Amino acid sequence: MERPEEGKVAMRIGIDARSQARRLAGIGYYLQEMLKRFLEAEDENEYYLYSNQDFELPFNTMGRVRKRIYEGKGIGKKVGNVYVRKVVPQLLAQDGINVFWGPEHCLPKPVSGVRYVVTIHDLAAILYPGTASFYNGMIQKWVCRTSCSYADKIIAISENTKKDILEVLSIGEDRIEIIYNGYSPYKRQDSRIEMRDGREIRSRFRIEDKFVLFMGTIEPRKNLVTLIEGFERWRLKEEGTCQLVLAGGLGWKYRKILKKIEGSPVREKIILAGYVSELEKEWLYRNADVLAFPSLYEGFGFPIVEAMSVGTPVITSAVSSMPEAGGGSGFLPSGSFRCGRDGRASGSGLRAGCLRKRGMHTEVLCAGSEILRKIMRSEDIGIVQNFGERVPGALGLSLTGRGNCA
């Protein structure tokens, strides 16, 4: 398949779409939102989605998206990074791809005439090796370093991630573009949840009244043991109905967290909700009295933005990108509380957050709206819409320009 002639608007853009074949999490949602923006653009670009496992997209692709599902066997079918590195390069040449975007740290081997863009969400595997298994950590380190070494453009999802890339990978700053991770799906929307649905969700999770919410994968990096300890200190001092809801799928090394919950003296107040649907997630954000997000390291920390977009106060760590996700040093309105720099949540902070939500709602909502405006409109950091509407122009790429790959 030949590439479009130089000078024509239409381009063929390849995308690593493996995240769509797994249970949707951060990168999966990120790719879907970006793809929607690509399709909203007034151009005739075609998008080729590559995956070693089949999947279906939950929206109309208007005939401009083609799936390339690997039908072979062996290690490429089982190991996604091997598939991208070894199998996809052959397909890029066959499909006449102009630009390839890797949204999860991995790029195919260089192919003549193809420009490469990779998104780096975080460098947790390199900076915090204890947050991943030895095997996955080694693979991520190798894939991330190798892909960044020849990418024409690297997308960092926050200023903090860009800083880490510069310091750890020694990449030239001119190749790094900061493009934030999209927007809250609840932005400028009234609740889509019927009263009946809300009652069913509350009953399903056994939520009685007030509750502290954590949203994210159940894994050590999220610092949930210390969150549980902070909740215990509060609940053991005071009587009350406030509960702690942990919403998210089980990640790596989750057993220690489950053991902590099972042995907690306030076990009956802790709800392990598991992986939640989009409707359940929205209800939890809108009805929580406070979001507790004491992570030790994040590339961005999007639950902070999602919670504040609906007026829910946030307690979070003052490390890595969390202050940035909230809009800077003053991102939490007066009366809100932060964890310490070590991510440790105090029981008094959780208590105060629950007690003050009603009076803080408008202030938090205004702050959340301001953060969303920054994410969506800031012209000096690379706009999310522009990534979709001007690929590859917003990334400094062109059909005729010479890239880092011969």
Written description of the protein model:
This protein is of the alpha/beta class. The chain has two domains: 12-179 and 381-395, Glycogen Phosphorylase B (Rossmann fold); 195-377, Rossmann fold (3-Layer(aba) Sandwich). The protein has 14 helices and twelve strands. The chain has helices at 26-40, 75-78, 80-95, 124-127, 134-150, 159-169, 195-204, 224-237, 255-262, 278-287, 302-309, 322-325, 347-377, 384-389, and strands spanning 12-16, 46-51, 65-69, 99-102, 115-120, 153-156, 176-178, 211-215, 243-247, 270-274, 290-293, 314-316. β9, α9 and β10 form a beta-alpha-beta unit. α8 (224-237) crosses α13 (347-377) and α11 crosses α13. The radius of gyration is 22 Å and the shape is globular.
Give the CATH architecture of the largest domain.
3-Layer(aba) Sandwich
Order of helices and strands: EHEEHHEEHHEHEHEHEHEHEHEHHH
Spatial extent as radius of gyration: 22 Å
Number of domains: 2
Main sheet record: 7 strands, parallel
Highest-level CATH class of the largest domain: Alpha Beta
CATH topological fold name of the largest domain: Rossmann fold
What is the CATH superfamily of the largest domain?
Glycogen Phosphorylase B
Structure classification: alpha/beta
Quick gist of this model?
The chain is an alpha/beta fold. The chain has 14 helices and twelve strands.
